Every structure is written in C-alpha cells, then in structure tokens.
Predict the 3D structure of the following.
Amino acid sequence: MESQPLVSVIMPCYNTEKFIAQSIESVIYQTYINWELIITDGPSSDNTVPIVQKYCEQDSRIRIIVPDHHLGIAEARYTSIQNAKGYYLAFLDSDDIWVRDKLEKQIAFMQSNNYAFTYGNYEILNSDGTLAGKIIHNGGIVDYNMYLKNTILGCGSVMLDKKKIGQVILPAEDVNDDMAL
C-alpha cells in the first residue's frame, strides 16, 4: 500500500455560511495532506456556495456538487461518496471542525491495526464555534447490535477503508429522506 493513500472527506452542507469556512480550513490545515474534500450542497439559499467556491478556486483538492433539487442529509452524503476517489472515507459535517492531526493519527491507527472502520472521541462546540468543554468519549469496540442501541458515534470522528468495507450503497427508501441538512 502506498505510504499516503488518498482520503476522501465527505461533507454535506445546507445554509451553513456561518461555519463552513472554519470546517473547510480544519481539513486544509491537516498534517496529512493527501486528501480530497467533496462538498455536496443542499442547495443552500444563503452564501454557503460562494464561500465554498472561493476555497475550490484556491485548492484543487476541494470540489463542490450543487444539485438542482433539495437533498436530505443521507442523499447529500451519498452523492459525495459516489464521487469519492479515495482509499479511505472520512466524514465531516459543515458545522464541525477537526484537530490538525486527526487524519494522520486515525490513518496510522487503522493501518497498524488493519481496521476497516474506526471512530473516536469528540468535543461539543457552542453555536459560536467555541469549545463547550464537553467531550464525548467513544471507548471500546462497537458491534452492529451495540450500535443499534447507542448512536453516540460522532459522524466527524468516523473513517472507513473502502477496500475492506466494500461499495457503500444507500437503500432506496433513504435516498429521499425527509431529514433536513
């Protein structure tokens, strides 16, 4: 395996002009540099798209997909996944941020343990983007039945190995979900 496999960062967004720049910058400033950021918009009615387009112009690793119809969060993520070229998939919502070495540490952990799916702890942010001081600890191994009982895993902490997991397919009934982004 190559030393730095490509990571596809999957980011759905919808009307997050207040937060999206900080989210994108948390990817740009990662210590691990072999990534692509695929942003699928809702489509937004605020300035989210122009903000993202500026980042796309500055960094060829960032792409935006703007559909002509409203997407729910599942379909937006799925659209980004379908356009991902990476070996790994990492997930980040457009109002969340990563610490600088998140990708580097998580990939090293996955590779050294031969894991297909990992997740970690995360800290809650206030609505103004400051840290709330509340850390959600996700310790131990979670199997399918445990996950059905507890969905505390933070989306922004999840990474999976596409070669080990296989094709990510969204069930047809979830494509047109009613969940807003």
About this structure: The radius of gyration is 16 Å.
